[in-house]
């Protein structure tokens, strides 16, 4: 009786360091032949294909940006004259021969992408909230909301170019009929060209954010709304304290993808305004196209493309870091 108690207690109480040893044993790396390592090498074909399709062209573009490749040397582009960072200095250094062109194009692209995204978000979220409810003919209207999105960008640009034609376009005639504007508004030249392009892109691109918002809304359990209603929350409070926090990650991703997509939009300004657009809509992709395939300065166009890639990666990196911090908290 006297010795039994201490013996049992000695067995029950863990010795110092046993917990750490147990944790280190559980954290021991997997053996080389473990089947849990299989997914890594099985991903090799996909990673190799991704590297061939995505990363190899980026490396080739970066190499071309360091050369003086033009219409005279494109036949043997591997032996084009090496100019180093001259194109980057010409475009990024204040006072450089192409600096004003690059900065004006970046400013036009930022204004276009941010304005379009800011207008799309409330429209798309409002439509998603409306058609997430039980309505008669909901399936039909959900499908009809996708019509602008499935129309090719080229066709959409031609339609809106006709809408904004000077004097004969629907926009000028409608403004003149309601005595808000005149038939000589000139949407396709001058300061109004930016708003014409923004309206055209908002009409075509808002269903993308609408789809993401609708998908996020359908993942919210109905019990949360029932509990909020029992607690006395009205519609606005349910939206602010239940709906918005649960769909905020999806909305953040939608903002990032929408902004990058609009910043990189080439077809719409090219078809609506041509290769000599007004300064307000001379976006960066169009400027890169002109330098590369109109003036045939491929090295300068490649350097601008690398700068555009760095700019477009910035919001994606910020979003990913914010999402990782949110997951850790």
* SS strand fraction: under 5%
Output mean pLDDT: 85
Structure summary, number of beta strands: 0
Distance between the termini: 52 Å
Total number of domains = 1
Query: What's the story with the biggest beta sheet?
Result: none
Which series of helices and strands comes N to C?
Answer: HHHHHHHHHHHHHHHH
CATH H-tier superfamily: MetI-like
What is the CATH top level name? Mainly Alpha
Structure class: mainly alpha
CATH fold topology:
MetI-like fold
Return Rg in Å: 29 Å
Count up the helices. 16
The residue fraction in helices comes out at 55-70%
- Report the CATH architecture: Orthogonal Bundle
Shape: globular
As residue ranges, the low-confidence spans are 1-14, 16-25
Q: Could you explain the architecture of this structure?
A:
- With 329 residues, the chain is mainly alpha-helical.
- Helices cover 69% and strands 0% of the residues.
- It has one domain (59-328): MetI-like (MetI-like fold).
């Amino acid at each position: 009786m006297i010795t039994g108690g201490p013996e049992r207690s000695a067995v029950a109480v863990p010795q110092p360091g046993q917990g750490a040893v147990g944790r280190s044993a559980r954290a021991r790396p997997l053996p080389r032949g473990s089947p849990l390592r299989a997914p890594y090498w099985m991903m090799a074909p996909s990673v190799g294909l991704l590297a061939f399709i995505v990363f190899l062209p980026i490396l080739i573009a970066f190499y071309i940006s360091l050369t003086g490749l033009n219409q005279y040397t494109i036949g043997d582009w591997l032996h084009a004259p090496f100019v180093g960072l001259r194109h980057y200095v010409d475009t990024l250094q204040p006072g450089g021969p192409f600096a004003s062109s690059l900065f004006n194009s970046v400013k036009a692209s930022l204004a276009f992408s941010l304005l379009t995204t800011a207008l799309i978000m409330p429209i798309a979220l409002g439509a998603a909230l409306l058609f997430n409810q039980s309505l008669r003919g909901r399936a039909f209207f959900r499908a009809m909301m996708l019509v602008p999105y499935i129309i090719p960008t080229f066709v959409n640009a031609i339609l809106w170019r006709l809408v904004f034609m000077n004097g004969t376009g629907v926009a000028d005639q409608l403004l003149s009929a309601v005595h808000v504007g005149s038939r000589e508004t000139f949407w396709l030249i001058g300061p109004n060209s930016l708003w014409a392009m923004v309206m055209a892109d908002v009409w075509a691109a808002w269903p993308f954010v609408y789809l993401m918002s609708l998908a996020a809304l359908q993942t919210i359990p109905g019990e949360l709304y029932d509990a909020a209603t029992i607690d006395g929350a009205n519609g606005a409070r349910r939206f602010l304290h239940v709906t918005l926090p649960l769909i905020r990650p999806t909305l953040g991703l939608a903002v990032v993808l929408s902004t990058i997509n609009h910043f990189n939009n080439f077809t719409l300004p090219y078809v609506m305004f041509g290769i000599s657009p007004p300064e307000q809509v001379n976006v960066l992709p169009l400027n890169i196209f002109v330098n590369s395939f109109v003036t045939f300065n491929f090295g300068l166009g490649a350097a601008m493309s690398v700068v555009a890639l760095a700019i477009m990666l910035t919001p994606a990196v910020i979003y990913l870091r914010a999402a990782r911090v949110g997951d850790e908290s």
